[in-house]
Amino acid sequence: MKTRLKTALLTGLAFTLASCTTASSENAALTAAASNQDQLASPAAGEWTSDGRDYTAQRYSPLTQINAGNVDQLGLAWYADLDTYRGVEATPLYADGVIYNTLSWNITTAYDARTGEVLWTYDPKTMREFGRYACCEPVSRGLAMHGNKIIIATLDGRLIALDKDTGTELWSTRTFELDSGYAYSITGAPRVFGDKVVVGQSGGDLGVRGFASAYDVETGEQVWKFFLTPNPDDMPDGEASDSALDMMRATWSDEGMWRELGGGANPWDAIAYDPDLNLVYVGTGNSVPHARFYRSNDEGDNLFVCSIVALDADSGEYRWHYQMNPGEEWDWTCTASMISADLKIDGEMRQVLMQAPKNGFFYVLDRATGEFISAEAHVYQNWNEGFDANGRPITSEAVRYDETPKLVAPGPGGAHNWFPMAFSPRTGLAYFPAYQSAFVYARQPGWEPQPYRSNSGWGGYTGEAGRIRGELMAQANEMEATWLAAWDPVRQEMAWKVELPRHGNGGVMVTASDLVFEGTTKQTFTAFDARNGNVLWEYPTQSAPVAGAITYELDGEQYIAVNAGWGGGAAQIERGAGIEMPRAPARLLVFKLGGTLELPPLAEDASAPPEPPRLTATEEVVAQGRELYHQICSVCHGQNAMGGVADLRHLDRETHEKFNQIVLEGLYLEKGMASFSDLLTPEEAEAIHHYLIARANEDWGR
Ligand code: HEC
Asked: What is the CB < 6 Å shell around ligand 1?
């Protein structure tokens, strides 16, 4: 069944309840807490209740109905048009016959998992101004579930709990103040750990002081907060991070722009949990400004940039950390998936935490103590000359750049970015999309930071530096390669890999029938044999799925669901290189054995809509235009300017130029579009035009 987002119709349902907890007897609350805990710690085999499926975040499903013998019979059971050309990065959730999904601007929808019928849609009315702060599109990587609640984290910094059955708001909490002075936003999924929701934030390229914070899942009240860089005024914060403030501060220079730009280290993607050890693991982002020279006078490790930091789940206090890149200055983040497993290493069972961050290595740490167990590069790299006895990396001086350009591998896109990794306890392998790349870094002489802009401190490639850069970039381009990696974390070596055409291959899911599912840049959703990488099934998705897939069981049938919506940071890199594939708008695709539904054929000349003009009007003008549009135009052109007789988000340049003639002079009368000059002044028509440009910019995959 084909479904459409009925955003405007359904948002009426989403009235606000004040921050509240339903009164219930203490015993009932305790029982509910215990069963919620179970649902998240060990969900039923057919469910997918958190983005990593359970607290190990292995993205491993015990379901086996779909297997190597029948996977070629997988077909489409239903799909939902998501009505956007924006990237869709969210891993959906599934419980009790319902799929929960979230899109750009945090528009969240519940679907009947059998048919795709929309049960409710909630639009948090995310402030569109925050689109400017999202380096890599206003995406959301997922949502969380707890008992009767669905929890989302909005781009503009709110954590919102919704009633799972109705989409009604139960509570809403701000995780950062709008006047914080930092360019915070949220693109990562919130996670429920026990009775708390934990979330981080984005903005490390522009300027933020990263932190992780935890909230009571029943009320939304903050329980603890941990800043991941020191206080710029050299004061305690009165927060849980004070437990590590002196340790952090000793690793930063007294001088440097970290004080005004916050230093970074913001956890913008994975945060993990071990309920038995009662530890929350925070993967932290890159530093800001990126060039350590400007940030911290070229001194210090700059804790906790590019690290995993373990915190006490109850108090948020510091327990241990491991820093992957001391003195990080290459835009490397350590925010990628963190997976827990128990592995036999050198004859001993170890409780490990695994991560393959941007810097090209695969790390295995002891998750109780943070002890470094092992790490090995899975792509070409030139920054690491080994590890000392404590597991601290020996960073090559050759990658510490000054005003002379240096070739460094991997590049800032990262050897493995946020695309979810999976681990199978059956094969003992970790599966993730790998990207071999390099980049030329140089410090820009006399650089000054700009508020709310990308603040790297890189540049100045003129004269001799420009010539060197050109030569080195040619070398860097030669190195580019990408594949699905199956990595053996015990031996620290590649078990197998499958080459793929280009950067931006999707997140990975693995099942107990040894199937690995991944969206690829061939614009396919593909099943690989988890043991050897053989391609067992491939489905043309018309848009490369970047998100991680899920699988669930309903009425004895196993389904597989994935968002297919190309976009985000990888798409930006590819587009920058002039690569843009014809594609359909984003869709949620749901497969089952014997599914027979077909996608409508991709039009011969299908391409993303034309790039909209920049929005120049004020918020007031856009608001006036929105009002007038809905009074006069939406009956034919759709609510929120989506769909309708002609989708007005997709106007080409000529149509933009002729806009007033069409609307006020009857230019397209013969097509059925009469003049509205009796209802609108030229200024009012102009306001509608600005509203449409604003809508185009919101939904266009820039
Ligand atoms: C009664 C239905 C109706 C209403 C109301 C209406 N339109 Fe249209 N509009 C049409 C039709 C039909 C077309 C032609 C579609 C086609 O190309 O076949 C059209 C085309 C257009 C186009 C050209 C689109 C393109 O890509 O070529 C613009 C611009 C437009 N309308 C703007 C507006 C605006 C602004 C309003 C409100 C002030 C409005 N329309 C109200 C029916 C309507």
From this structure: 632-633, 635-637, 645-646, 648, 651, 655, 659, 662-663, 668, 671-673, 676, 688
Predicted confidence at residue 10, as pLDDT, reads 28
Task: Give the whole-angstrom CA distance, residue 331 versus residue 306.
Answer: 9
For residues 28 and 136, the model is more confident at 136
Question: Which residues have CB under 8 Å from 518's CB, separation 6+?
Answer: 431, 433, 484, 505, 506, 507, 508, 509, 525, 526, 528, 549
Place of tokens 């009368």: 669
Residue nearest to atom 15 of ligand 1 (CA): 646
**Amino acid identity, position 375:** A
Question: Alpha-carbon distance 192 to 170, whole Å?
Answer: 16
∠ CA(97), CA(103), CA(108), 5° rounding?
A: 50
What is the reported pLDDT for 91?
A: 98
Specify whether the CB–CB gap between 378 and 361 falls below 8 A.
Answer: yes
CB 516 within 8 A of CB 59: no
The per-residue b/e assignment along 635-654, b for 16 or more CB within 10 angstroms, e otherwise, is eebbbbbbbeebbbbbbeee
Give tens-digit pLDDT for 357-415: 999 999 999 999 999 999 999 999 999 999 999 999 999 999 999 999 999 999 999 99
Rounded CA gap, 185 and 416, in Å? 22
Assign residue 217 a region (left: φ > 0; alpha: ψ between -120 and 50; beta: otherwise): alpha
- Cβ atoms of 434 and 497 closer than 8 Å: yes
Between CA 123 and CA 103 the distance in angstroms is 10
624 C-alpha vs ligand 1 centroid, how far in Å? 19
Does the pLDDT of residue 158 top 90, yes or no? yes
- Measured CA to CA, the distance from residue 102 to residue 100 in angstroms comes to 7
Cα–Cα distance for residue pair 690/694, rounded to 1 Å: 6
Distance CA 54, CA 688 (A): 47
* Nearest alpha carbon, ligand 1 atom 2: 636
**How far, in Å, are 111, 278, 435, 443, 558 from residue 97 at the CA level?**
9, 31, 36, 54, 12
Are residues 264 and 229 in contact, defined by beta-carbon separation less than 8 angstroms? yes
Terminal CA-CA length for the chain: 29
Return the pLDDT at 610. Answer: 78
Tokens of 2: 């084909």
For 55, 62, 209, 268, the CA distances from 337, given in Å and listed in that order, are 12, 20, 21, 11
Pocket test for ligand 1, best of 631, 637, 659 (most atoms within 8 A of CB): 637
pLDDT digits (tens, 9 = 90+) for 410-440: 999 999 999 999 999 999 999 999 999 999 9
- Rounded Cα distance between 257 and 451, Å, is 12
List the structure tokens of 462: 């003129």
CB 535 within 8 A of CB 500: no
